[in-house]
Design goal:
Elements lengths: L1 H30 L1 H4 L4 H9 L3 E3 L4 E3 L2 E8 L5 E8 L10 E3 L4 E7 L9 E4 L1 E7 L5 E5 L4 E4 L2
Antiparallel strand pairs: 1-3, 2-3, 3-6, 4-5, 4-8, 7-10, 8-9
């Protein structure tokens, strides 16, 4: 009769270990947006602020307009030549020269980006020219730019 109690206790211990492991797995997957598929505004801001060509956390999307502060996080001067959201759009005005560590306020207009009050998530590509070599590059972020439309 004592064996039945021991088996039940072992069963409960094994069950609790399985539940704890499952909770750890869910927590870890939730911490990596590429695996879980969801990116919060805070995760997006953290990624983009430190990306090769950064977008500072004060970005704002409203209807067909995106207002961004773009920062050169590279160690050399670049000339911004374009910004695209999901493959659409461009920089308003002429190309902008950015020295290492400097930033500039930019505006992208003319494409429907979001509807007021709704969540958005866009793949962003930034085209630039290396001022030393003259070569053209496109930096596409590994994380979407996300937030709530204003």
């Amino acid at each position: 009769m004592g064996m039945r109690g021991q088996a039940a206790t072992e069963y409960l211990i094994i069950l609790s270990v399985v539940v704890i492991i499952a909770l750890i797995v869910v927590g870890v997957l939730g911490a990596f947006p590429a695996i879980s598929g969801t990116v919060t505004r805070q995760q997006s801001e953290a990624y983009w602020q430190n990306a090769e060509i950064g977008i500072m956390p004060n970005y704002r999307l409203s209807g067909s307009t995106a207002e961004l502060t773009v920062k050169n996080n590279k160690g050399f001067a670049i000339r911004l030549t374009g910004i695209k959201f999901d493959g659409r759009g461009d920089v308003a005005g002429s190309a902008v020269l950015l020295s290492p560590g400097s930033s500039v306020d930019m505006m992208v207009q003319g494409i429907l980006l979001c509807t007021a009050g709704q969540q958005f998530g866009h793949a962003v590509s930034i085209m630039y020219e290396d001022q030393v070599t003259g070569r053209q590059f496109t930096f596409t972020g590994a994380t979407q730019l996300t937030g709530t439309c204003q």
